[in-house]
Amino acid sequence: AVGLQLLFGLGLLPSGFITAAVSFGVLALQRRGHRPFEVAIVAFLAFIVVGFAFQLASVGLDPGAAAAGLVPSFPDSSALVLAVGIVGATVMPHAIYAHSALTAGRARGIGRPARERLLRFQRYEVVGALLVAGLVNTTMLLVAARVFSGPGLGAGVDGLESAHAGLAQLAGGAVALAFAVALLASGLSSAAVGT
Questions:
Q1: What pLDDT band is residue 150 in, cutting at 50, 70 and 90?
Q2: SS3 call for 155
Q3: Within 10 A of 96 (CB to CB), how many other CB atoms are there?
Q4: SS3 for 67?
Q5: pLDDT at 179
Q6: d(CA 122, CA 115)
């Protein structure tokens, strides 16, 4: 809903209704089998990955600072809260549930060897999904660190709307547009999977 608000200037209430309608539309794809639903979710994921890759390519990367940032440090309690939030955003319980639910539907009526292959494939998919989520979250942090670091640059960024406005002001409209589209795709996919 916030992505629709950022992209089209809609209010949150109409954006919420549109999000719900699209989410149920994506869920309705399951009536045609598992594959159409999976293709829709992968398409959303592609928008997210491309959007954040574009943002990172646009703002640039300081490899030394990025490598240094991979070393965990917790100078105060707010850093620990941020780290827990990042881990929580990366693990994505709704994605793990979706893989489990889709696999359970496919596992009915098949023999043990086929079920074992299916479960092994599911493990690869879940690990792959978590790796992609981790890379997207890392990319978000790298973009934020690159754009909002410096005296006073990140002071007013306290939500998605202000992050979008800050990206537009400091990195350009194309980067802000990519952020909003990736946010919309992320919200629609997680709403459909979570529902």
A1: confident
A2: coil
A3: 16
A4: helix
A5: 95
A6: 10
DSSP per-residue letters across 98-128: HHHHHHHHHHTT--HHHHHHHHHHHHHHHHH
Q: Which residue has the tokens 């709704």?
A: 94
Can you tell me which residue has the tokens 């952020």?
179
Whether 105 and 34 have beta carbons less than 8 Å apart is answered as yes
AA identity, residue 127: V
The vertex-192 CA angle with 188 and 195, nearest 5°, equals 135
- Residue 127: both structure tokens together: 């690990």
Q: Is the pLDDT of residue 182 over 90?
A: yes
CB 59 within 8 A of CB 90: no
Mean pLDDT throughout 138-161?
A: 81
Here the tokens at position 165 are: 């406005």
Q: How far is CA 159 from CA 8, 12, 166, 169, in A?
A: 18, 15, 10, 15
Whole-angstrom distance, CA of residue 81 vs CA of residue 89? 12
Q: 132: closest CA among 100, 98, 182, 90?
A: 90
Q: Span 125-138, mean pLDDT?
A: 84
* Structure tokens given for 51: 């959007």
Mean pLDDT of 142-155: 79
Pair 176, 164: CB distance under 8 Å: yes
Task: Tell me the percentage of the chain whose pLDDT exceeds 90.
Answer: 33
- Whole-model pTM over 0.90: no
